[in-house]
Amino acid sequence: MTTRTLDSHRADALDDLRRALRARTPPASGGGFVLTDGAWGTEMQARGLAPGEFPDLWNLTHTSRVAQVARSYVDAGSNVILTNTFGANRVRLAEAGLGNDARAINRAGVEVSKRAADGRALVFASMGPGGKLLFTGDVSREELDAAFREQARALADAGADALVVETMSDLDEAVIAIAAARATGLPVVASMVFDAGPNLDHTMMGASPEDVAQALTEAGADVVGANCGQGVAGFVGLCRRLRSATDRPIWIKANAGLPEFENGKAVYRTTPEAFASFVPALREAGASYIGGCCGTTPAFVAALRRAQSSS
User: Fold this and answer.
1) Whose CB among 26, 122, 236, 273 lies 3.0–4.6 Å from 161's, allowing a Cys bridge?
2) Separation CA 289–CA 252 (nearest Å)
3) 3-state DSSP call for residue 21?
């Protein structure tokens, strides 16, 4: 197959994905799912991000290294890549003295990923939690709403194709972020972390997958799902339970297992091939978007791509 033919197939897949997002339906893509990307934080650490350094600031100070991460996922086969904006809301940025740089950091994050995608992948801009807890009173609903609205508007103005409210542990905070993201008119993915309870099947605040799916759907998310928190094996059951409680497509991004620490560094033991071996089970459970979270790399995306091609 020629490069031109491959590019044509990729363009057709992206058009299908855009239509599916607008219709809130599972995309009709090759292999039955959309291939997203892998981890950003661990990839940036491999490129020199120091402990305690604010990753999002690299959009302005180490643009070429951020672009390397984005491009590596596109080259590995991702149909969707995220942005280096996970912590770029004003509440979180203020802790690093960067609150007034929120718009610039978010705009740069989208621009870097869009240049790297170069029409070969869509860019879904990342919106993570505020870093302070509502239930303890460390932050107010009004402060979170203002911060998420500022971030979402900056991401949308920079040309993001969709917004991803991800790695949320508190449903109340997720709902606030979804409302802010929906105000831009862009499609919204909302994804929670399940890492609590004896079976790691509840959020930190005690919500079940069924609770989460219903609440995110009612809040207006176009795609709902789970990311981070545990290895891929645990996501099969989570996916099935999410699927049972919503008509929205399901987004799945598991870790490469739980980290072990060696010489002060996090080491993930799951191999790309072992991770990708769960694709049939995830598809059977209802996943429409599959990628990776902490510890996953472009090699994991390439393995998922091979699994996609063979299914």
Assistant:
1) 122
2) 6
3) helix
DSSP, res 266 = E
Tens-place pLDDT, residues 241-260: 999 999 999 999 999 998 88
- CA nearest to 130, candidates 116, 152, 145, 117: 145
Taking the CA atoms of 292, 294, 298 and 303 in sequence, report the sign of the dihedral they define. negative
Interatomic CA distance for residues 242 and 33, integer angstroms:
16
Domain that holds residue 176: 28-310
Residue 269 CB-half CA count within 13 A: 8
Q: Say which CATH number the domain at 144 has.
A: 3.20.20.330
Q: Coil, helix or strand for 98?
A: coil
Cα(89)–Cα(151) distance, rounded to whole angstroms?
A: 6
Other residues' Cβ atoms within 10 Å of the Cβ of residue 157: 13
* pLDDT per position as a tens digit, 82-113: 999 999 999 999 988 999 999 999 999 999 99
* Neighbouring C-beta atoms of residue 253, cutoff 10 Å: 27
3-state secondary structure of 76: helix
Q: Is residue 180 part of a domain?
A: yes
Task: Classify residue 193: in a domain, yes or no.
Answer: yes
Query: Residue 196 carries which DSSP code?
Result: B
- The residue assigned the tokens 């997958």 is 209
Global pTM value: 0.94
Domain assignment present for residue 265? The answer is yes
Which of these, 110, 124, 77, lies nearest to 221 by C-alpha position? Answer: 124
215, part of any domain? yes
Domain count, the chain: 1
Residue 124, phi then psi, degrees to nearest 5: -105, 115
Task: Kindly state the greatest CA–CA separation across the chain.
Answer: 58
